[in-house]
Structures are given as C-alpha cells and as structure tokens.
Amino acid sequence: MCNLHSRRAFVVGGLSSLITFNGADAQFHAGKACGAAMGVAPPAGFTPTTGNSTLDKAIIGELQIIRRLIPANPMFKFYDDSQSPNAMAYSPSPAGQLPIPMIQGTWGLVVLGLTLMRAELAPATGGIALAGILAHEVGHIWQFQYPALERDLRGDTARNQELHADYMAGFYFGREGRRNANDIEVFSRSLFNKGSYNFNNRDFHGTPEQRVTAMKLGYSQGRTGGDVGDIAYQGIQIVRNIR
C-alpha cells in the first residue's frame, strides 16, 4: 500500500528453483512506504528468516538478481503479516521513518510477510509470483530514490505509484530473460487477484486489469534492452495512460 501523506545468498536462479516448491516451511507507507496490496497496517515482528534455510537462500538469491537489474540496495526482512497479508517497501526519507536502524551501505527497507509468502508458494508455480512481488517492492525503492519520479507519479490515490511498481516488476521479468509467456501469466493471475475497484480509496492500487496491463507493458519494455532509468521514466506516462 502507499500512504500518500509521507512514506542478500548466492543461489543461482533464486526463486526459479522454487517453481515446483509446494507448501512451505517454507501491503506499507508509514511516513513513506508502499506495499503489494492495499489497506494494511504497518508491519511488526521482523525476522531475518522464514525458518527454512533453503527457502531463505532462494529468496535472497532472487533479490540479488532484482537488485542488479533495478539498481537499489534496500535492507530485507520477513515479518508477521497474519492479520493483513502483504509485502512492503520503506523509504528512509524523511529521516527516522524506517522501523529498524539502517545498515550502512543500504537504502530503504523491503519486508515480506510470511503469510503472503506461504499463500503465494502454495501453487506449484508460486515462486514466479513471489519473485514478481519482490520486484514490485524494489520498484518502490527505485521510486523513492528519485524524488522527481516519485513526484510525477503522485495523484489523488496511490494508483500511479502502484501501477509503476507493477510495470517495474514486469521490466524485471523481461530484462532477466528467464521467463516465458506462461510464467508471465502466473504473475498476471497473482496481480489480478490483488487489484480492486475501490477507486476513491487513497490507497487504491489499480483495478485487476490495470495491474496486469502495467506489468505486461513493463515486460515488453524490459525486453528492448533500453536503459533502466529511461524505461522507468517512460513508465510514468505509460501508467498514466492506462485506463
């Protein structure tokens, strides 16, 4: 989610190794924060692990790939989202907004709810959708790092910010080159289920159709080989034009 008034592990393939991972032991702006789903409370109960070392390595491996392609270096934690399943991205600006101390050399914070993680990993192809959610949150960190971009995405609701994060998640899948059309449809279904028609809610993330469209447009842009910064800025008008 996005409140508008403010807001690592060397596993080759990352979550692609979990495409057949079934079951598992395997949405935030507090000040300035954004998440995958709307209407959730700020997270609590941070932890560095899922309790499953194989899953931890796969998730961190995927994050490493995401951070190379969407240049950002946030801290990462899991959290208890049993009340409101979600994932979130926090900006460290203004000072004091992060819920935990920042580690030197990092910028911002991404947190993944354990309930959301387990739900996404329940289907045999769940690793794909989870990778997309992580890329969405790193996309928010990218927005936060560039005030002009974030400013140009502002509106009466969080729609443009959220659709742009979906677009950047699509860019990630297009650029990293491991995903086929079936994989994109897996993430499309996950996004579709997180859309809504609550147009007047300030935390509105876009309709199901809009979220899927934004992601697929980003996927097409990612496959062009263009500069990530140029593509991110082009995405501002792209998501504004989605109806």
Model description:
This protein has one domain (14-240). It has helices spanning 53-69, 114-121, 126-145, 147-153, 159-176, 181-192, 208-222, 228-240; strands at 33-35, 44-47, 75-80, 87-90, 109-113. 45% of the residues lie in helices and 9% in strands. The two termini are 20 Å apart. With 243 residues, the chain is an alpha+beta fold. The chain contains eight helices and five strands; from the N terminus they run ββαβββααααααα. Mean pLDDT is 82; it is low at 3-13 and 16-31. The chain is globular.
Q: Rg from C-alpha positions?
A: 16 Å
Order of helices and strands: EEHEEEHHHHHHH
**Main sheet specs:** 5 strands, mixed
Helix tally equals 8
Tell me the count of domains: 1
Instruction: State the distance separating the first and last CA atoms.
Output: 20 Å
Mean pLDDT score? 82
- Counting helices, strands and paired strands, the structural category is alpha+beta
Strand content: 5-15%
Strand order of the largest sheet: 1-4-5-3-2
The total beta strand count reads 5
Helix-residue proportion: 40-55%
Gross morphology is: globular
Poorly predicted segments: 3-13, 16-31
Q: What are the key terms here?
A:
alpha+beta; 8 helices; 243 residues; disordered N terminus; 5 strands; five-stranded mixed sheet; 9% strand; globular
Quick rundown:
The chain is of the alpha+beta class and 243 residues long.
